[in-house]
Every structure is written in structure tokens, then in C-alpha cells.
Write a structure and sequence with these properties.
Blueprint (H helix, E strand, L loop, with lengths): L13 E2 L2 E2 L1 E2 L10 H14 L9 H21 L7 E4 L2 H16 L5 E5 L8 H10 L2 E5 L9 H7 L4 E7 L11 H10 L3 E5 L11 H4 L3 E5 L10 E5 L1 H6 L10 E4 L4 E3 L13 H17 L1 H19 L5 E4 L8 E6 L4 H10 L2 E2 L1 E3 L4 H7 L4 E5 L6 H17 L1
Parallel strand pairs: 3-15, 5-6, 5-7, 7-8, 8-9
Antiparallel strand pairs: 1-2, 4-10, 9-10, 11-12, 13-14, 14-17, 16-17
Helix pairs in contact: 1-9, 2-9, 3-4, 10-13
């Protein structure tokens, strides 16, 4: 994977007069030249609003935008481009699903099941729905190793369960949840299943038909694509029955002061001018990782994760959070009584970029009995030499305390 580093110019810069070691990829990945150049070409050569113009530039821009939808469809193996809704990211995708599902299918007393390891983006929208519709939220517990308690999950499912919404991969623990099996059990209970795939799509093959999920959400910026673009996949028969999330241009078929009729899928859920340059960047990013091979990326990251944990285990007093078999490229840790913010701040002065804090997962922090953690997260361009530099810097920080 070393040869791909040259595609990411930012990795050659220095920070505080030291070579940058970027290990905060679960927050956002860096962008390859191919992505930035594709977006630049569109701005310089074919920039025009999509779907509305009959002129040449508008047609070119529309072709790129809808071509990106097809690229995403192939990438996650959706049945149709009508099942691919462009959003601003995972957060908006889950909010869209929560709002529209709530309006269409959920009533007071109905149950939504989530897990203790969810990102706030997969907690708060359901709490807002609880305030609006009076639903009940149930929470799947986890083991001390960081695996979901599947026996407890099955016991939570009832005739009142309408939806299960669960992360495919924990952004803190790296745990890979068995969402295919969980979706099957949810369907047997008569419930829908939503997958938060923000942390899985960049790191492993994701096939929505194989998973048999009803909805799936992910963000572009964690997949080497630009910020502000994401996807909500939904089965067409469900999206058809759900009301629009927002109103305005693009998502309408006809408007009078008496009534409005809405566009066909997926445009019913895409109000206003879309980020059509962002979708071009997303398609370029999908093409980039597909050309490398998602399986090759996964293998590299798994090997690097194992190496990182082995090297980090040399540090006295280190405590890992999440040690399940097959975890992805996220390593959360604390060292002794050192505050994770102090670790992150001092590592930054040594050129090492990691994430510290509650990682938008405060209920998970409470379950683990801590206020926050330090987190290393890896990507296709990271190397064993960077892990060595990080461990050496961390040892230096620990000695300071």
C-alpha cells in the first residue's frame, strides 16, 4: 500500500516541524488527488445546476450526478438507483429515516431497538422521535470485551418492535457487529433494520442485498470523498411509502396552492439543489478504492491493527477498549491515570494526530466507566513505520507523567 501514499499530498507535510503521522481516519480520511481533481474539473469545465437545464453544461452535470448514483449503487449492490438517496452524510441519513419512518409507520408505544455502542447520530434522532411520537427506545447491552450481547438482543425483540438501528462497526471499539444475523432476527419479529455503515463501508465489502437490511447509511468523508455528501440506501417499497423529509425544489412533481405532488424515487427525498460536485467526488472516491480493491485494503488494515496493538501492548499501564475477534482498524485506549486529552495534546506536538474524548458515544463511555478515551484509527495509506513513530511518541509522553 505504500505506493498509494503519493496520491495524498497532505501526508507529506510537517506539523510542529515534524513529519505528520495522521491516525484519525475514523473521524475523516484524507483525500486523494483523483477526488480533488475530479471535483476541480467539474467546477472548471461542466459546472451547472442539475436536472433543470436543457443546455449543454446542465446536461453534462446531470450525467455526472446520476452517474455517481449508479457508481454508489454498484458499490453497495443496491437493486436500483431509485434506492440511493444522496444526503449530507450518515447523520442526515439517519435523521431522514427516523423522521419519515416515524411519520409513516410508528405510533405511541412502538419500540425502536438500538445498541449501547451507537454514535450519537444513531441515538438522538430516535430520542427526538420519542418526543414526537411517544415511541419506546430499548438498548442492546454489550460484553466487557466489546461484543453485543446477542441473547439480550433477541430477548428485547417483541411484537411492539418496529425498527432495529445498529452500527455495523463501532467507531470507538472497532467491533464488527453481525448485522446480517441481527437483521434476520428483526425481520422474524416483524421489524425493519437500519445499518449505520459509516465505519464499515470504507473498510470492508458491504452488500445491502446480502445483508438484507432495509436501510443503510454512510458518509463520503470517511471514504476518501469530500465532506458534506453521504448516502441513505432504502428498499424501494419502503421509501415509496415514506413521506418526504424536506420540501422545496427538485423533490416536487407539481405545485399549486391547493396541493403538491412529489417526484418519483429517489428525488422525493432530495429537496433543493444537490451537492452535485460532492457526488462527483464521492464517485471518484468509490472508483479509487475499488481500483485498489476493498479486500486488499481490509487485509492491510487488519494487519496494521494487529501490529499496532502488539506494539502498544509494550507500554506499561495501557488499557484497550474493544478486543473482539476480527475488529476493524480502530484502537481505543487509555494509559494509567493520564487524561486522554493530555495524551492527544502532547502527541500533536510530536506530529502525531489521534482523536481523544468521548467520540460522540457518551453512553458507551459510561458503560466502560470512563469519561473519554484516546483513539488511533487507520486507513489504507498508513504504514508500520508510522505505528512505530506513534508508539515511540506515546512512550515519551507516558514518561513525562
Amino acid at each position: 500500500m505504500l505506493r498509494y501514499r503519493q496520491d495524498f499530498p497532505i501526508l507529506s507535510r510537517t506539523v510542529h516541524d515534524r513529519p505528520l503521522v495522521y491516525l484519525d481516519n475514523a473521524a475523516t480520511t484524507q483525500k486523494p488527488r483523483a477526488v480533488v481533481e475530479a471535483m476541480t474539473r467539474q467546477y472548471y469545465e461542466t459546472n451547472a445546476n442539475v436536472h433543470r437545464g436543457v443546455h449543454f453544461l446542465s446536461q453534462c452535470s446531470t450525467d455526472l450526478h446520476e452517474g455517481a448514483r449508479e457508481t454508489v449503487r454498484r458499490f453497495i449492490n443496491a437493486s436500483s438507483t431509485s434506492e440511493i438517496v444522496f444526503t449530507r452524510g450518515t447523520t442526515e441519513s439517519i435523521n431522514l429515516a427516523a423522521y419519515s419512518l416515524g411519520e409513516a409507520f410508528l405510533k405511541e408505544g412502538d419500540e425502536v431497538v438500538i445498541s449501547v455502542m451507537e454514535h450519537h447520530s444513531n441515538i438522538v434522532p430516535w430520542q427526538l422521535l420519542r418526543e414526537r411520537r411517544g415511541i419506546v427506545i430499548k438498548v442492546i447491552p454489550m460484553t466487557d470485551e466489546g461484543a453485543l450481547d446477542l441473547e439480550a438482543y433477541r430477548a428485547l425483540l417483541s411484537e411492539r418492535t418496529r425498527l432495529v438501528s445498529c452500527c455495523h462497526v463501532s467507531n470507538v471499539l472497532g467491533t464488527v457487529n453481525p448485522v446480517r444475523q441481527m437483521a434476520q432476527w428483526a425481520h422474524e419479529a416483524g421489524a425493519y433494520f437500519l445499518v449505520d455503515a459509516a465505519q464499515s463501508v470504507p473498510h470492508m465489502k458491504v452488500d445491502v442485498q446480502e445483508l438484507d437490511c432495509d436501510f443503510l447509511a454512510f458518509s463520503g468523508h470517511k471514504l476518501y470523498a469530500p465532506t458534506g455528501i453521504g448516502v441513505l440506501y432504502g428498499k424501494a417499497e419502503l421509501l415509496d411509502r415514506m413521506p418526504p423529509y424536506q420540501g422545496g425544489g427538485e423533490m416536487i412533481s407539481r405545485v399549486t396552492f391547493e396541493r403538491t405532488t412529489f417526484e418519483r424515487l429517489p428525488f422525493k427525498f432530495e429537496a433543493g439543489t444537490p451537492d452535485y460536485v460532492g457526488t462527483t467526488g464521492l464517485a471518484a472516491a468509490v472508483d479509487y478504492v475499488s481500483a485498489i480493491g476493498i479486500d486488499r485494503i481490509a487485509q492491510h488494515e487488519h494487519e496494521l491493527t494487529r501490529y499496532a496493538m502488539r506494539r502498544m501492548s509494550e507500554i506499561e499501564g495501557i488499557r484497550f477498549f474493544g478486543q473482539t475477534e476480527g475488529k476493524t482498524s480502530v484502537v481505543a485506549f487509555n494509559v494509567g491515570d493520564i487524561h486522554p486529552l493530555d495524551i492527544g495534546t502532547l502527541l500533536d506536538r510530536l506530529g502525531i494526530a489521534i482523536r481523544t474524548g468521548h467520540h460522540c458515544a457518551q453512553p458507551l463511555m459510561a458503560r466502560c466507566g470512563v469519561e473519554g478515551m484516546a483513539r488511533v484509527s487507520l486507513a489504507l495509506y498508513n504504514t508500520p513505520e508510522e505505528i512505530d513513530a506513534f508508539v515511540a511518541a506515546l512512550q515519551r509522553v507516558v514518561k513525562m507523567f
